[in-house]
Amino acid sequence: MSVPIYYLFGKYVDPLFGVFTGAVAYYLWENHPRTAPPQGSHLADLIKWRFTKPEDRPKHPDWDRIKADLQQMEKELAGPGGQTKQW
C-alpha cells in the first residue's frame, strides 16, 4: 500500500507551519503598541530575572512609591468635599 505524497507533505509541513505561525503571533503580541506588556514584563526580562541569583534580586518592593500611589488614588476617589464616592 502506497501513501499519497500530499499526506506526507502535510504530515511534516503542518507542524512546522504551526510553530512558525505561533512564533510570529507571539512576536506581534509582544511588540505591537496596543497589546505589548508593560516595560519589564517582556519574556526576555522575565527570563533574565528568573536566572539571576536570589541575593542579586531586590529584597523589597519600593513601599514608599506604592504608599504614595495609594494615597493619590484615595485623594482622587475622595473628591472635592473629602467624601468618598458612592458607586
Taken as a percent bin, the fraction of beta residues is: under 5%
Rg of Cα set: 25 Å
Broad shape: elongated
Helix proportion range? 55-70%
Instruction: Please mark out the parts with pLDDT under 50 across 5 or more consecutive residues, or reply none.
Output: none
SS class: mainly alpha
How would you characterize the largest beta sheet? none
Termini gap:
72 Å
Number of E strands: 0
**SSE sequence, one letter per element:** HHH
What is the residue-mean pLDDT, rounded to a whole number?
Answer: 81
How many helices does DSSP assign? 3
InterPro entries: NCE101
Keywords: Membrane, Transmembrane, Transmembrane helix
Organism: Calocera cornea HHB12733
Pfam families: NCE101 (PF11654)
Layout: helices, strands, pairs:
Elements: H1 5-31, H2 43-50, H3 63-78
Structure description:
The chain is mainly alpha-helical and about 90 residues long. It has a domain of about 55 residues. It comes from Calocera cornea HHB12733. InterPro entries: NCE101.
Structure characteristics:
membrane, transmembrane, NCE101, 59% helix, transmembrane helix, Non-classical export protein 1
Q: What's a concise summary of this model?
A:
With 87 residues, this protein is mainly alpha-helical.
